[in-house]
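Work Package 4 report. The design task specified in the project plan requires that, given a folded chain encoded as structure tokens, an amino acid be chosen for each position. We show below one input record used in the internal validation round.
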């Protein structure tokens, strides 16, 4: 629950703490900061368009962060659906 709440409130921080920092923290951060800018602009000018766009960007960043965290968890636990469990190990007689 803490991870999900953190992914909703501050998606880049959730990815930094529980996910893959080098993979997706920067793009998620850009979406989240754009959402904050859109919300701030919409509140300052009392217009609904930028606020809705900001909310949409925030939701995208939160969902993206949660998906990254779930992917890292499944790779760490090596579940059946993880990418780690489905890697093809090359044989010794195979060459590049």
């Amino acid at each position: 629950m803490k991870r999900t709440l953190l992914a909703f409130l501050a998606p880049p921080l959730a990815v930094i703490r529980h996910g893959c920092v080098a993979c997706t923290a920067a793009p998620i951060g850009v979406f989240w900061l754009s959402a904050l800018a859109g919300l701030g602009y919409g509140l300052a000018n009392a217009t609904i368009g930028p606020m809705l766009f900001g909310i949409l960007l925030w939701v995208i960043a939160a969902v993206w962060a949660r998906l990254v965290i779930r992917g890292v968890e499944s790779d760490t636990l090596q579940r059946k659906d993880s990418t780690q469990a489905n890697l093809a190990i090359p044989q010794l007689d195979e060459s590049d």
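DSSP finds four helices and no strands in the chain. Validation will be extended to a larger panel in the next phase.
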